[in-house]
Structures are given as structure tokens and as C-alpha cells.
Amino acid sequence: MVGDLAYTVCRDSLTVALRTGEGETQLAGHRMTVYRRQPDGRWLLARDAHTLTPTRG
Length: 57
Hints:
The chain is mainly beta. The protein is built from no helices and 4 strands.
């Protein structure tokens, strides 16, 4: 946290499956989320960026 800005950095992975059940794709990558403190003290998401890419076909 720096003043009224805070951030998190993490590694994400997820599997996306078709509703028909005929296949799935695995994705993985890094994520950075930036939060900004509002005048009333609440933290709101200001920016979310990720690099999810398929890990296998």
C-alpha cells in the first residue's frame, strides 16, 4: 500500500468447460489488481490486468 493506492499480485489458473461437456481449456497467468481508497475510506478496484493464456489445447 502506498498512500491511497494498494495492489495485489497473484498467479491464477482456471479451467473453462463447454456446457455440452465436449471439451475444456486450461488457462494460467499472472494478475495484478490496483485499488484506490475513496474519500469515505472505502477501497474500490481501480484497475485489473491479467495475462491468462491457454496452458494446453
